[in-house]
Design brief:
This protein is an alpha/beta fold and 232 residues long. The protein is built from 7 helices and 8 strands, in the order βαββαβααβαββαβα. The strands form 2 sheets. Strands 3-2-1-4-5-6 form a 6-stranded parallel β-sheet, with helices on one face. A two-stranded parallel sheet has the order 7-8.
Length: 232
């Protein structure tokens, strides 16, 4: 089987590639190597005979179409995204272009070239938040209530994915994990930022009044879960 991994040089995508690379499948990684993408994250994959890296932006429709035509992917696992909530406040156009329009480019190519399954890596932030004293929990069928520009673009992309299921019968799956943590995470994220600030005797940021709660998931556990619906 041949898998396309978008955003494979980023945090979660690179962990996923390093997790699956030893099996017999073929893997093609597309990444534009923005500030969060780093080839060092996948240096152990680069010389593998079952791996190819392509530097490209998923919004480049003509280039993506050509890649799909040449590579004939069986599965697409779509990690590529602008992800940092704080950055989404002042850069909504970038988040919308990458997270929504880029996803549409991939969906169009998946339908055109007969991809067997399209897996979309989303986020639990599409559910919004609960009051601190709430006993509710989010489930797959919980109502979506995105509250920031990042989660809004992820929810919009999800709606596109479901549209392609309904309109074109494209086999799709979606995962909505909570915040991931682990090795090689960008220092803009909360846990590495706190560790870095503490090691360098800088103030540790507190969001709001400090009473917020978040679930955290070790990145490899997320990669294992993502591997299940796509057969690795």
């Amino acid at each position: 089987m041949k898998y396309l991994i978008t955003g494979g040089a980023g945090f979660i995508g690179s962990h996923y590639l390093n997790y699956v690379i030893d099996n017999d499948n073929q893997y093609v990684c597309i990444d534009c190597l923005s500030y969060a993408g780093n080839l060092d994250n996948i240096k152990d994959c680069l010389n593998r005979p079952n791996f190819k890296f392509i530097k490209e932006n998923i919004c480049n429709k003509d280039k993506i179409d050509k890649i799909f035509e040449e590579e004939k992917f069986d599965y697409v696992i779509h990690f590529a995204a602008e992800t940092h909530v704080d950055n989404s406040i002042d850069n909504y156009d970038l988040f919308y272009r990458t997270n929504v329009l880029g996803t549409k480019v991939l969906l169009d190519a998946s339908v055109k070239y007969g991809v067997k399954r399209f897996h979309y890596v989303s986020t639990d932030e599409v559910y919004g938040s609960l009051d601190l004293d709430s006993n509710d929990v989010f489930k797959e069928d919980s109502k979506l209530n995105p509250t920031n520009n990042y989660s809004k673009t992820k929810a919009l992309a999800e709606s596109l994915v479901f549209e392609y299921l309904n309109k074109y019968d494209l086999d799709i799956t979606i995962t909505r994990s909570s915040n991931n943590y682990g090795l090689n995470q960008h220092k803009e994220k909360l846990i590495p930022k706190i560790i870095d600030n503490a090691l360098n005797n800088r103030d540790i940021p507190i969001y709001g009044d400090g009473t917020n709660k978040r679930d955290w998931l070790y990145v490899l556990d997320n990669c294992i879960a993502i591997g299940l619906p796509v057969g690795v």
